[in-house]
Write a structure and sequence with these properties.
Length: about 130
């Protein structure tokens, strides 16, 4: 199953139960359809970069949270439908991180170092892994 990251901005309410219900509903949908929730993170309440409108209401403050999960594409479509129809959700996006969690864990070093052999142009830089540019 592909590995996804959902980033969501929810409408801010004084009570914590609204955000808890939304996160529980999203995670339950993934779990009920054979997926695995790997991580839930709350980024807290933040002022939005601009006034945003959702469900005929303007919002200036939002609760940011993320969920990392493995799920089938059909489950992801269902999750997007839940987010689309829930009035508590201001904005969301789903990002495909990789085909498997193992693909994400093997991050290749991409630091560039300067060769000292005096070559000019694009050959002047080389990856630290030993490959030339």
């Amino acid at each position: 199953m592909p590995f996804y990251r959902l980033v969501c901005i929810a409408a801010h309410y004084p009570e914590y139960k609204h955000i808890k219900d939304l996160v529980t509903r999203a995670a339950s949908h993934v779990l009920d359809n054979g997926g695995v929730v790997r991580r839930l993170d709350s980024w807290g309440t933040q002022t939005l970069p601009q006034r945003m409108r959702r469900a005929k209401v303007y919002h200036r403050i939002g609760d940011y949270w993320t969920m990392q999960f493995d799920a089938s594409p059909a489950t992801l479509r269902g999750l997007n439908n839940i987010m689309r129809h829930d009035p508590r959700v201001i904005r969301w996006t789903s990002l495909k991180v990789g085909e498997k969690v193992d693909d994400v864990l093997l991050v290749e070093e991409k630091t560039m170092t300067r060769n000292t052999d005096g070559l000019m142009g694009s050959r002047d830089l080389a990856y630290s892994t030993g490959r030339s540019v």
